[in-house]
Amino acid sequence: MSQRTVHDLETDVAPKRLEIFREIVPELKRVLVVYDATNADAVEKLAIYRDAARRLDLVLLERPVRSEQEARAALVGTGKGEADGFLAPRVPSLNIPGLIQEIGSRQAVPTMFHDPFFVEQGGLASYSANDQELGRQAARLVDKILKGANPGDLPVEQPTKFELVINSKTATALGITIPPSVLLRADRVIA
Question: Rounded to an integer, what is the distance from CA 72 to the centroid of its chain?
């Protein structure tokens, strides 16, 4: 039996998400990341963002929290001049993406998410694997298993379609002009 590994696509997607955020908000210099310090996955993923921020010459303002109340306080306590943008981690524990959506909108701070849901609710942008395509891939694998395939013999599939979603109404409200090169790459622009 051959050895297989599961590739964590967040390793590839997270830096790209931060890069796109900087393209959308060219004056982006300081990015706030609030994360659940009790969640090993969230802590592990932070290293990916640190490395990407370093390569992009950005300052990552890290706020480890242990409760939703701490997350809210960290976001509310970050003044507009302190952070140029809020980056929602992929790990959704403690309602951090929801709080970033709520407080980022209220404080008029640009936001970048892993899930288009938050852009549909007024966030600025998201970049992630397309959930519908992931569902189709999973359904194909389940179908093969139901038809008798050994799960151990099936290759690990990775997402093949990624989605950039931009909320142009939010961009306008924030005084941000989305570069045409970014708009051309967007899979969806919410007006």
Answer: 18
The Cα angle at residue 162 between residues 92 and 138, in degrees rounded to 5: 75
| Separation between Cα atoms, residue 123 and residue 98, nearest integer Å | 10
CA distance 6 to 163: 21
**114-136: buried (b, 16+ CB within 10 Å) or exposed (e) per residue?**
bbbebbebbbbbbbbbeeeebee
Confidence (pTM)? 0.84
Rounded to the nearest 10°, the torsion over CA 109, 113, 118, 121 is 30
The rounded distance, in Å, linking the Cα atoms of 153 and 132 is: 24
Structure tokens at 100: 């970033």
The amino acid present at 71, given as its one-letter code, is A
SS3 of residue 177 by DSSP = coil
Q: How far apart are CA 66 and CA 16, in angstroms?
A: 27
Rounded to a whole number, what is the distance in angstroms from the first to the last CA of the chain?
51
List the pLDDT tens digit at each of the 191 positions of the chain.
Answer: 333 323 446 677 889 999 999 999 999 999 999 999 999 988 888 999 999 999 999 999 999 999 999 999 999 998 668 999 999 988 778 999 999 999 999 999 999 999 999 999 999 999 987 666 666 767 777 777 778 888 888 777 676 778 999 999 999 999 999 999 999 999 999 98
